[in-house]
Amino acid sequence: MLTKEQLPRVMNATACDPAGDKIGTIAQVYLDEETDQPEFATVRTGMFGTKESFVPLADAEIRGGQVVVHVDKEQVKAAPTMEPEGPAGGLTEEQIDELYRHYHLESPHHAATSDTSDTSAPFGAPMTHGTSTASTASTMPPKPGPGLHATTRRPGAGDAMTRSEERMRVGTRSEETGRVRLRKYVVTEHVQQTVPVSHEEVRLEREPITAANRDAALSGPEITESEHEVVLHAERPVVRTETVPVERVRLAKEKVTDTETVHGEVRKEHIDYDGPERTR
């Protein structure tokens, strides 16, 4: 069981159930008005910690900076939500009874009127195996007074009050926004190019009979029919293609830094002075 001396380690600590699941952050601790020892705590739950649920501190213990309470996380989620209505911010008898019923604990108001000779411990209370009636009675939980009162001040703080506020922490995370890929495809283009071509043509040449060519001219029959054929040639354009590499293409990433404005809500505690007017 937690003691009042351990409150500095309890305030703003993380509350977990016996399985190690996080329940929330402890915001307030309610003390028994008779024993002045921790009896209940409110734990901030929910996505943004805006909801406070009551958790019993019976059998609670501190493990490695966390407060382990002996109730299930789902049971805390289903706990009744209530605002203090009693004197000095405490809980009323009806509210206390409702909390004890939810956690299957014996109500302090019922215990105060029950037979003190009953040595059976209520549900959730620690029980020590002993042989004498005195040792058994010493394991019974202290019987609270008519109510519980809350404390958010750490022991030894004197009359000072701690003011807290939330700070917005802004960070960044990397997420995929799209994908870029290289794709190669073939297109056909019409190209035009002028090339020079040549061809052969026939030209008729006549030469007179001279002493130099007379023998060649008289070598054949005197009168006859004959033909002489000349082969003509011409150049024609020939088109062929060849594949040649022209460039290398790749994808490169570069980091561009921009600025964005983010908005959020933070809570602050304010402290007001409420008392008689001061006189000079």
Automatic annotation (TrEMBL):
Q: Which residues form the PRC-barrel domain?
A: 19-75
Task: Fetch the SUPFAM superfamilies from UniProt.
Answer: PRC-barrel domain
On the tree of life, the source organism's domain of life is Bacteria
The segment(s) forming the DUF2382 domain are 161-272
Question: Known Pfam families for this protein?
Answer: DUF2382, PRC
Query: What InterPro entries does the database record attribute to this sequence?
Result: Bac_photo_RC_H_C, DUF2382, PRC-brl_dom, PRC_barrel-like_sf, Stress_Response_Assoc
**Spans annotated as Disordered:** 108-176, 257-280
> Which regions are flagged for Basic and acidic residues bias?
162-176
Return the protein name.
PRC and DUF2382 domain-containing protein
